[in-house]
Design goal:
1% strand, mainly alpha, binds phenylalanine, 2 strands
């Protein structure tokens, strides 16, 4: 048998999977969606979805990966040879490309902003100046491209060292750092004057804001945030040791995902509200609102360095999991060396990432229907590719993979989790496919979009 990498310990596995899961989605999307959709009620819905739907999907991916001990495309050809299921694997690899293309651009921005923070370039600037400098940076074209390329080089340097010596080793250091920095920032934010308003925005339960679309938003957010539906968890699952209890890994990771998401909200919103600014989401929140606040806050210089460093960690540990999906496929299926696979992938992403960066320039021609390539990559992956991928993955795990095999993977040959397994399998076979279908039909507008 060929030698394959694997994660050496439970902590290593949780750190690596957690590194993939915890990313930009937790920092700039979750807090805002939660605030807009009923606060604590949304968080409860999100938590239920994570445990009832996302963890079973994650366990399906882990099982497929570990049963096959192969990359996300090879896993399907090994478990269902001669069938068309391999296309689910190919689609996942394509999705990894699409996500990486815009994710690396943001990773590059985090790099640039880290530099600006270290050089103390936000201090003493007016909000207009900060906006002009951010817009100028994005519109400049070549500067974002250079940072995107640097970010890709940093990510590839980590995975070049392999699964255990690269991915596991770095995520084991970086994830605890991210957690501690974020906790420190949240505590600091909570001591600011007027912090309660931010806490109320994030946590105050408001049932009137909950509607059918809230649940669907929580679902979509959970898929992206838990890195589901595109093979990252199949690939990482294939690196789980045979004796690893995947249910525990899944539960720990889901808890970390939500904890970090809430902590980000507690780090960001009290500060935003305490300075009387309206919250926003996405790049604007992180690259405009926050620098504005850092420029006015005492200790803002240090805080901005901490924040952009943690944003950088969140982005890079997710980006290495995306790269690994492609690299594992190339080494195992196309039989090229890891070094070469990484070089080819990095080059391709440098090109697509640069195109995404260029599409952000005002009046760029890289747009379709008024949407920039960057936004298209974002919505294509999270609204279409990932839900569809997750649908086919659970159908495969629930209906194609033999029940005994699925059970052996999830319960380590009946060593634990025996009572919960039938519940998970029921969810995978019947409930989750229907729920994803509803989400998907709503997202492509077949219901005319729920209110
Ligand atoms: N989960 C990551 C985030 O929240 C994004 C991601 C999606 C990473 C899919 C890997 C695979 O930012």
């Amino acid at each position: 048998m060929e030698k394959r990498g694997s994660f050496g310990s439970r902590f290593g596995a949780v750190a690596a999977v957690g590194g993939s899961v915890i990313g930009l989605g937790n920092i700039w999307r979750f807090p805002y969606i939660a605030g807009e959709n009923g606060g604590a009620v949304f968080i409860l819905i999100y938590l239920s979805i994570s445990f009832l739907i996302s963890i079973p999907i994650m366990l399906s991916e882990f099982s497929i990966g570990r049963a096959a001990r192969r990359n996300s495309m090879g896993a399907f050809t090994r478990l269902a040879p001669g069938t068309q299921w391999k296309w689910v694997g190919y689609a996942g690899i394509l999705t990894a490309f699409i996500i990486l293309s815009f994710y690396c651009v943001i990773g590059g921005w985090a790099f640039e902003f880290l530099k600006e923070s270290i050089l103390n370039q936000f201090q003493g600037k007016t909000p207009d100046q900060i906006e002009a400098s951010f817009k100028g940076f994005v519109a400049c074209g070549w500067r974002p491209i250079i940072w995107t390329v640097l970010f890709i080089i940093a990510s590839t340097a980590i995975i070049l060292a392999g699964v255990q010596q690269g991915i596991e080793r770095y995520t084991k250091i970086l994830m605890p750092i991210l957690f501690i920095l974020l906790l420190g920032m949240a505590i600091n934010s909570l001591t600011l004057e007027g912090a309660q308003k931010g806490v109320a925005f994030l946590l105050k339960p408001d049932f009137s804001k909950v509607s059918g679309s809230t649940v669907l938003q929580a679902l979509g957010q959970s898929f992206f945030s838990m890195s589901l539906g595109m093979g990252a968890m199949i690939t990482y699952g294939s690196y789980l040791r045979k004796e690893e209890k995947m249910m525990k890994v899944g539960a720990l990771v889901a808890l970390s995902d939500i904890t970090v998401a809430i902590l980000s909200g507690l780090a960001i919103f009290p500060a935003v509200f305490s300075f009387g600014i309206n919250p926003s989401s996405g790049p604007d929140l992180v690259f405009l609102t926050l620098p504005n606040i850092f420029s006015q806050m005492s200790g803002g210089h240090l805080l901005s360095i901490v924040f952009f460093f943690l944003l950088f960690i969140a982005a890079i540990t997710s980006s290495i999991s995306l790269l690994e999906v492609i690299v594992a496929y190339m080494t195992e299926e196309l039989h090229i060396t890891r070094k070469r696979a990484i070089a080819y992938t990095a080059t391709a992403i440098c090109i697509t990432g640069s195109l995404c960066a260029l599409s952000m320039i005002p009046d760029s021609i890289l747009t379709i229907d008024g949407k920039s390539l960057f936004d298209l990559c974002d919505s294509l992956s999270s609204n279409i590719m990932m839900p569809l991928g997750a649908l086919f993955i659970v159908l495969f795990a629930g209906w194609v993979l033999s029940p005994i095999r699925l059970r052996n993977e999830m319960t380590n040959h009946l060593q634990y989790g025996i009572t919960i397994f039938p519940v998970i399998r029921f969810m995978i076979r019947f409930v989750i496919p229907v729920v994803i279908l509803l989400l998907f039909l709503n997202q492509v507008g077949l219901f005319g979009r729920l209110p």
